[in-house]
Amino acid sequence: MTESLITHLRHVDLAIPDYDKQLAFYTDVWGLTSVANDTGISFLAAEGSPERYIIRLRKDEDKRLDLVSFGAASGSDVDTLAERLIAKGVRLAAEPGDLATEGGGYGLRFFDLDGRTIEVSAEVETRQHRKIEEREAIPVRLSHVVLNGTDPDRTAQWYADTLGFRLTDTLSHPEMGPVMHFMRCNPQHHSVAFARGPHVSLHHVSFEMRGVEEFMRGSGRVIRSGAKLVWGHGRHTAGDNTYSYFLDPQNNTVEYTTELEELDEDSWHPHIYDTSDPLTQDQWGTANPFSEAIAKDSFNDVDPGLFVAPPV
Length: 312
Hints:
By secondary structure, the chain is α/β, with parallel strands linked by helices. The chain is built from 6 helices and 17 strands. It has helices spanning 19-29, 75-87, 152-163, 212-224, 278-281, 292-297; strands at residues 6-16, 33-38, 41-45, 55-59, 64-72, 92-98, 106-111, 117-122, 141-149, 166-173, 177-184, 192-196, 201-208, 229-235, 242-247, 253-257, 271-274. It has a 9-stranded mixed β-sheet with strand order 14-15-16-13-9-12-11-10-17. Strands 2-3-4-1-5-8-7-6 form an 8-stranded mixed β-sheet, covered by helices on one side. A hairpin with a 2-residue loop joins strand 2 (33-38) and strand 3 (41-45). The chain is globular. The chain starts with 5 loop residues before the first strand and ends in a 15-residue tail after the last helix. The relative contact order is 0.17.
C-alpha cells in the first residue's frame, strides 16, 4: 500500500461565467465568508474552519473545475510527493514552490488520471475561526468532494496507488456494477469519492453543518432562496451522514451534510452497498426517491479544463 502524504481536503476552486450571481449565492445564501477578493476572483471561508478558504470562485468565459486542493503535513512531504509523482510519470502542472494565492504556503500542482488539476500544499496560513453556535445554520467546514468519470474503478485505484487514499466503501448497482467509491486520507469516512457518469466533471461539493438542527435550518434557508432542491432531506447508509443536495446558480451540485462517520482505521473493512435497496440511499425514507433525473442533475456539464492548468 502506498503511504499517504495527504492529510485532508483544503478547498475546491470553481471557474464560472456569472461570477457576481455565484458570489452572492455562496455568501448570502450558502453561508460562507468572503476573506479576500480581487477583480473576478474571491476566496470564501467557513467560519468554523481554520482553513484560509474552502471555495475559490474565478470569473471565466467557461465553467470548469479549476482544481481540488489537499493538505500535507510539511513542505518536505510536498517534495517527497513530487518525487513520487515524477517517478510514476504523472504530469506536473506546477513544480513545488511558494504559492501566490491567499494564505500562501508551499505546494505543487499536477493532473490526475482524468485530467483534473490537483494541488497539494503545506505551511498555508490559517485563519482565526470560531465555534459555530447552536442553531447557527452556516457551514462549519468543507466536508468532501465527489467527482464524475467514466471509469470510477480505474480512477479510485489510481488515487490509492499514486496518492495513498484508502477505499472506505463502494456503492454498486446489480446491473451497472460499482457506481461510486468513497476514499479517505484520514479517519473521516471520505474526503473524496468517484462516481460513474457519462463524462469527467464535478459531481458535488459537500459542506459540514454543526448538527441536524442547523442542517435543517440551513436547508430551509436555501429552499426559500429559490435554489433547486435536487435530493433530500435524508440520511445515507455509506458514511451515515445527512444530505440535502441543491444546484448553485451555475448548476453545480452542492450539499449540506452533518454527522459524517469517523472510522477506526485498525478495524474498518470496506462495504459494498446495493443501490437498488432504498435504505442504502436514505435510511430515514424522508427524501424523494433517487431517480435518473437526480442522477442527471449531478452529471454536470463536460469539463473543458482537463489537462489545462487554471491561470491562477
